[in-house]
Amino acid sequence: MTLLASIPKVDRILERDGIKALLGLHPRPIVLDAIRAVLDSLRASARAGTLQEEQLHEGAVTAGIEREVARATACSLRRVVNGTGVVIHTNLGRSLLSKRVKPLLDEIAYGYSNLEFDLEKGERGSRYSHVERLLCELTGAEAALVVNNNAAAVLLALSAMAAGKEVVVSRGELVEIGGSFRIPDVMGQGGAILREVGTTNRTHPRDYRQAITPETALLLKVHSSNFAVVGFTAEVTAADLVAIGREHSVPVMADIGSGCLLDLSPFGICGEPTVQEFIRAGVDVITFSGDKLLGGPQAGIIVGRREFIAPLKKHQLLRALRIDKLTLAALEGTLRLYRDERQALAEIPTLRMLTASAGELESRARSIARRIRRASSPSVRLTLAGGISQVGGGAYPLLELPTTLIAVEIDGITPQDMEVRLRGGGGPVAGRIHKGRFLLDVRTLQDDDIPFIAAALRSLTD
Ligand SMILES: *Cc1c(COP(=O)(O)O)cnc(C)c1O
């Protein structure tokens, strides 16, 4: 109890030099909260009988308060080193923007712009016009519109095309994407009535034909994205669905999820259809994400036939789903890189990481390990091992990309402990544990991550 009594009071602490310095840098209420938090925790330790006398030394108390103020004033949103090998990691922000986008982003963020101003006519313009021509040029579509994300794109299209009417979907395509985006629920929100056809594993053209009635507004195809049905399966292709739609004068829509604009099969990445293939198949309306395989900012992109896109541009819901100017700048900057396929592959981080060869990854792993070794303590042991990375973002769920992993070992620290401390510490570094080792996959590491990794490892050994 004597220790409890010797815990200083707030007023006394406020007179200390270290705290006066903190008050010069931070608002008083934040410093006061930090002091109270530290004193509360000291009192709790004293009552539990675990308080040591040196914890009450002025230097120790001040350091505790400084840490608390630093914690309270740090940005919540911060950079994380992605050593998981999941390229389109939804929890870590999906796609990284290309550095090539930065000049346009700066220009639009810090200056006024022609966001909704037609510079030629000197009258109000449309924010949607800036990327429409580019999207049409790249995909072969007649018209395009961009919204906040793909979920919004699906909601808008269904609300405009099928409210109060029936939408025919295969039972094998009623998908749930992470974060509980469920196709049946979005259809309900859009006011459309779901008409399920076929079975989980097999759906045939006749299933769609039999379901079409005067109440049918739309035939919808949804890319299975994050799962695969294998074995005895049958699915109706986009081209066949378009033929059925034309027979009955019913439009066809496809939610293709990823929005791949390049054929990645030369890199062993097969099975994800490109947007252009859906346009060529004659699909009337196609929706996809901006920040999955496309490698741009979060956005929902709608491309297709003019007669179906035009009403979407006038729909009341569009205002609530509209894309912001920074996103639009990042999207235009990203799409421009697709005009030259080699440039897109080299400059868009998502594509660069996905198409990196095994040899390239191995030599990068050597060089990264060397640089981390140089900057961290000798007790950190780094070894290279072969492994598998994943695409993520609900694309190519079964695809295994061969990669090189850096295994990190420090005597006296378990891999579980290391994982927790690297994730919770400065830098934060996300990796994974496999067979008792903490691993960093070089596929998703950036060159400028290396100082953060080295500092995070130093904090474990110091
Ligand atoms: C990812 C995905 C969505 C949701 O896209 P967001 O851009 O995250 O809103 C919708 N449909 C499919 C098929 C998807 O793969």
Automatic annotation (TrEMBL):
Q: Report the residue ranges that make up the L-seryl-tRNA selenium transferase N-terminal domain in this protein.
A: 4-43
Give the record's keywords alphabetically: Cytoplasm, Protein biosynthesis, Pyridoxal phosphate, Selenium, Transferase
| Any Pfam family | Se-cys_synth_N
EC category = transferase
The places in or outside the cell where this protein is found are: Cytoplasm
Q: Does the keyword Lyase apply?
A: no
**Membrane-spanning residues:** none
Pathway where it operates:
Aminoacyl-tRNA biosynthesis; selenocysteinyl-tRNA(Sec) biosynthesis; selenocysteinyl-tRNA(Sec) from L-seryl-tRNA(Sec) (bacterial route): step 1/1
Q: Does the keyword Acyltransferase apply?
A: no
Carrying N6-(pyridoxal phosphate)lysine, the residues are: K292
Per its record, what are the GO molecular function terms? Answer: L-seryl-tRNA(Sec) selenium transferase activity
Q: What is its main location?
A: cytoplasm
Known InterPro entries for this protein? PyrdxlP-dep_Trfase, PyrdxlP-dep_Trfase_major, SelA-like, SelA_trans, SelA_trans_N_dom
**Domain of life where this protein originates:** Bacteria
Q: Which family does it belong to?
A: Belongs to the SelA family.
Q: What does this protein do?
A: Converts seryl-tRNA(Sec) to selenocysteinyl-tRNA(Sec) required for selenoprotein biosynthesis.
The UniProt entry, under HAMAP family, shows: SelA (MF_00423)
Its name, as the record gives it, is L-seryl-tRNA(Sec) selenium transferase
